[in-house]
Amino acid sequence: MTSWWRTAVVYQVYVRSFLDGDGDGVGDLAGLTAGLDAVARLGVDAVWLTPVYRSPQVDHGYDVADHRDIDPLFGDLATFDRLVGAAHDRGLRVLMDLVPNHVSDQHPWFVAARAGGPERELFHIRSRPTGWQSMFGGPAWSPLPDGSWYLHLFAPEQPDLNWAHPVVQSDFADTLRFWLARGVDGFRVDVAGGLAKDPAYGEVRRGSLHHPHWDRPEVHDVYRSWRGVLGTAPAVAEAWGPPERTAEFARADELGQAFAFDVLHTPWSAAALQRTVDAQLAAHRAVGALPAWVAGNHDIARVATRLGPERALALHLFLLALPGAFYLYAGDELGLPDAQVPPETWQDPQSLRSGGRLPNRDGARVPLPWTSGPGVGFTTGEPWLPIPATWPQYARDRQESDPTSAWSVLQRALAARPWLWTSEDLTWQDARPGVLVGRRADALVVLNTSSRPWRLPVATEVVARSVPGAEPTIATPSECVWLRDRRVRSPT
Ligand code: NOJ
């Protein structure tokens, strides 16, 4: 299958924090539309929007009250249509974030279920709770007024849907059709591995291969049923787990793509990265797919803080050079670090509900700096999370005019990247410990994770590199270099 999305670079827009069009301090669809030229200049293929559906925003849109409407905070269906048109005019595709595992407690179905209506069947409601735990800490069951208990794998305001029920299934198919008809090109599927629950509601057993609510075989039936609706449109699974399990979501008759999340937990070591890449490629190839690589997203600390800015940029170039797609988290192209968000301004339900025990995700969600002037150009109002005083140094306008900036490094790499697609193969070449050298036809990708420079092979020329202006014949420590091997004829 040679679909555009197999090798695409997708820019993840955390809509609240991208650009504010109406001065209320929260990014929105008008802001995103105004910022599309900047996205296109970077050279990505598509944008993925975090949820903009009608929502009380308890989990910043991952609590959906109406899957087929836009929240007034972000705009309306007309502003959405304008955004899609403007994106397509610029050659950018649009992916939406689909949230099928749970809804908001304000969704009409749950409001009716709470009142004792037959909609109870659309949720998991029992007379007694199990010991299952919520991802945001504490029990995954909360009481209803009649004394029964409903399941929420996330916040109590996010009741889980019963995917065994045909009404849930058919309603989601309608949601897919609704957005596809509006011109949407694909979806990111939230909590993709969570939809199926053990009908017997068994307890979580340590060491058991069968989990009562994660990655159960029935979940794949759901995605097989979606494929007929999706046609050739992609959907990318947000599923955590071992590569051979998560890759199953990427089967051609299911979603087509799955995130290669274990890169996020791989230490900065050539050997460890090679193992991760090999395992992901093997698992995906076994199902006829390629991985969707990621260096960051809105749920973890920014990569520039996890690894340091130089390594973060090198990791981007390395992942961009691998067979597969790459999802770039907005702000990472500016090398933004995780912001220190004062606890009194925390918004993330994960940290608020766990009393700070679980990581705070606000640091990776702070609004982006556009200009180096006061207010950094994100909003004319009060930003929804405080913007650090150091942000002007990362401003997009400053970086776009500086050929040595993180933005410019990535922009050059993205412009060169189509050349890599003469081959979907990747083989490793011998190098020194701490140095990885991958080959794809006439392309060599060198990642130097060591603290010593590495001499580049002769008869090569540098096509892109993460340390601009570095000595042309070496890969500096913490650098990734793309080389053209002049001894290999490039396939025509
Ligand atoms: C994963 C999303 O990325 C995260 O932000 C959200 O809190 C959970 N799913 C629940 O929807």
Write the layout of secondary structure elements.
Blueprint: E1 9-13, H1 29-34, H2 36-42, E2 46-49, E3 53-54, E4 66-70, H3 77-89, E5 93-98, H4 108-114, E6 125-126, E7 141-143, E8 149-151, H5 166-181, E9 186-189, H6 218-230, E10 235-237, H7 243-246, E11 256-260, H8 270-286, E12 292-294, H9 303-307, H10 309-320, E13 325-329, H11 349-353, H12 396-400, H13 406-416, E14 427-429, E15 435-440, E16 443-448, E17 454-455, E18 460-465, E19 474-475, E20 479-485
Parallel strand pairs: 1-2, 1-13, 2-5, 5-9, 9-10, 10-11, 11-12, 12-13
Antiparallel strand pairs: 3-4, 6-8, 7-8, 14-15, 15-16, 16-20, 17-19, 18-20
Helix pairs in contact: 5-6, 10-13
The structure holds 1-deoxynojirimycin (NOJ).
Question: What report would you give on this structure?
Answer:
The protein is built from 13 helices and 20 strands. The protein is globular. Strands 1-2-5-9-10-11-12-13 form an eight-stranded parallel barrel. The protein has a five-stranded antiparallel β-sheet with strand order 14-15-16-20-18. The protein has a three-stranded antiparallel β-sheet with strand order 6-8-7, with no helix packed on it. The model has no long low-confidence stretch (mean pLDDT 96). With 492 residues, it is an alpha/beta fold. The protein has three domains: 4-104 and 165-415, Glycosidases (TIM Barrel, Alpha-Beta Barrel); 108-151, Alpha-Beta Complex (Oligo-1,6-glucosidase, domain 2); 423-485, Sandwich (Immunoglobulin-like). The two termini are 20 Å apart. The structure holds 1-deoxynojirimycin (NOJ). 1-deoxynojirimycin binds at residues 59, 62, 99, 154, 190-191, 238, 298-299.
